[in-house]
Amino acid sequence: MNEQFDLIVIGAGMAGVAAANKCAAQGWKVAIVDSLPYGGTCALRGCDPKKILRRGAEVIDSARLMRGKGIDDADLSINWADLMKHKHGFTDPVPQNVEDGLTGNGLPPSTAAPGSPAHANWRSRAPPTTHTASWSPPA
């Protein structure tokens, strides 16, 4: 693969996807690369899944706070397998949905996994513009 791009976005989370889509909509030739599944930390491992899992605990806690006030919480429990299945119903489609949105805007499909020829080629030369939208842990 020996293509020229106006912008190579590093990081396929919400910020990277937004930048890629906006530039592609303006006619830029854009590529996006990420070593993790498309969607980013918030949608796949952080904010969104946390809200789903936390809600299960909040329901139990709310019922327990109402014990003796008209609510019987004796049989309430979290079924972890069912809760995780519910979470996966939200998170599992995200990478494909993000990629479909990107390819629908003219970006190449995700051939940029580490070790692929496209990834090596993109790293071997400096593009005119690079946007890094990646999270890194605190030092």
Helix amount? 40-55%
Mean pLDDT: 80
Distance between the termini: 36 Å
- How many distinct helices? 6
Please give the number of β-strands.
Answer: 3
Instruction: List low-pLDDT spans.
Output: 111-127
Strand content: 5-15%
Largest sheet geometry: 3 strands, parallel
Radius of gyration: 21 Å
Shape: rod-shaped
**What is the chain-wise order of helices and strands?**
EHEHHHHHE
For the largest beta sheet, what order do the strands appear in spatially? Answer: 2-1-3
SSE class = mainly alpha
Provide a concise account of the structure shown.
About 50% of the residues lie in helices and about 10% in strands. It has six helices and three strands; from the N terminus they run βαβαααααβ. Mean pLDDT is about 80; it is low at about 110-125.
What would the keywords be for this entry?
single chain; 139 residues; mainly alpha; 3-stranded parallel sheet; 3 strands
Characterise this structure:
The protein is mostly helical. The chain is built from six helices and three strands; from the N terminus they run E-H-E-H-H-H-H-H-E. The protein has a three-stranded parallel beta sheet, with helices on one face. Helix 1 (14-25) links the parallel strand 1 and strand 2 (30-33). Helix 3 (47-65) runs antiparallel to helix 4. The radius of gyration is 21 Å and the shape is rod-shaped. The two termini are 36 Å apart.
